[in-house]
Specification:
GO molecular function, one term: transcription coregulator activity
Protein name: Mediator of RNA polymerase II transcription subunit 9
Radius of gyration: 25 Å
Organism: Oncorhynchus mykiss (Rainbow trout)
Helix content: 55-70%
Shape: elongated
Subunit structure: Component of the Mediator complex.
Largest sheet: none
Family: Belongs to the Mediator complex subunit 9 family.
Strand content: under 5%
């Protein structure tokens, strides 16, 4: 089953809202005109987080569907490990020794 994996290492990986909230509060304490700008940044970051959550693989599946998928994948891993052990025990391949 092919799934779309989100890009790793992008600048959007930062999920911390605390610095943005801090900036908003700091502007409010100083009676700064930048409060609106800081609020826009905060709202934008919340919207980006919503979009990231919506794009996560499996988010559209129910808990029982996710558990079933997990069990299927675990069974595939067990089967592949068993086959790997079986093929290793056949000793059909000569492994060159390092000198």
């Amino acid at each position: 089953m092919a799934t779309n994996q989100p890009k790793q290492g992008s600048e959007n990986d930062d999920c911390s809202f605390l610095p943005l909230v801090h900036d908003v509060i700091k502007c409010m304490d100083k009676d700064s005109q930048d409060v609106h700008q800081e609020l826009v940044k905060f709202k934008t970051r919340i919207q980006e987080a919503r979009e990231q959550i919506g794009a996560m693989p499996g988010i559209d599946m129910s808990l029982s569907e996710q558990q079933q998928e997990l069990e299927t994948l675990r069974e595939q891993v067990r089967t592949k490990n068993q086959l790997l052990q079986k093929y290793k025990s056949l000793c059909m391949f000569e492994v060159p020794k390092a000198s």
